[in-house]
Amino acid sequence: MATATLPSVSPMIAPTAVGYSTPASLPGAPVIADEDLPQKKEKKEKKSKKDKKAKDKKAKDKKAKDKKASNKKKATKKDTSAEKPKEPKPIRQAVGVIVIDPSTQKILMLESKKKQGTYVLPRDDCKSKPLEEHPEKAALRLLHEKAGVSATFLTARVGSYSESNKKGKVIAHHWMYEVHGPTLLQSWPGVNRQRVWVPYEEALKATEKKRMSHLALEKCSLAKTVVA
């Protein structure tokens, strides 16, 4: 009986399973496990902390620099203020007039603007603009504008008095004058204020709280007449 000879399998070709390929034939890069990956996250966190620390230091340095500049500015401003002393407030120059009717020996008083039912002597401040007003001119202007009295000259100067504050600093000068036998006007700028003639004693009483007016009344010509 004849026997068939089967062809031999070449040793150079290894058998492979259907549907599978050798590792060398797989497509793409090789797969690497997560634990084998480099720790980039930790490096990123360290860099972030380092950047934050540098940022905080920069902010702190800027704050210190700004504070130093502010203190320097304040010190400079203080030094400038010390070099240029504040200009003193000008001393007030005020005038007042005792208007006397020789025939009745009475004094002209005006109704107070601040307190109804009370009366005061004609008073005003000297004007400072455009030019400094002389006290005597201010007194004549005062008579016309506030008291409705026409006068071309003042009979006498009763006196000048200085006013000081609590610290003893002079804050005002008061110039007090006398006018006898005035001419009363029927129309004047301050016509809305009532005018009254009062005896000397009543004028003294009415000015008890008006120091400068009271001092002037005590020194006027009527005071000498009363004493005599």
Lay out the secondary structure.
Elements: H1 40-83, E1 92-101, E2 106-111, E3 119-120, E4 123-125, H2 135-147, E5 149-150, E6 156-164, E7 170-180, E8 183-184, E9 195-199, H3 200-206, H4 211-219, H5 221-227
Parallel strand pairs: 1-7
Antiparallel strand pairs: 1-2, 1-4, 2-3, 2-9, 5-8, 6-7
Task: Give your account of this protein's structure.
With 228 residues, the chain is of the alpha+beta class. Strands 1, 2, 3, 4, 6, 7 and 9 form a seven-stranded mixed β-sheet that branches. Strands 5-8 form a two-stranded antiparallel sheet. It is rod-shaped. The protein starts with 39 loop residues before the first helix and ends with a helix.
Concise overview:
The chain is an alpha+beta fold. The chain is 35% helix and 22% strand.
Indicate the mean pLDDT: 81
Our Rg estimate from Cα atoms comes to: 53 Å
Q: What share of the residues lie within helices? A: 25-40%
- Total strand segments: 9
Distance between the termini: 191 Å
Main sheet summary: 7 strands, mixed
List the helices and strands in order: HEEEEHEEEEEHHH
Give the helix tally.
5
Identify low-pLDDT runs.
Answer: 9-24
Class from secondary-structure proportions? alpha+beta
Structural shape: rod-shaped
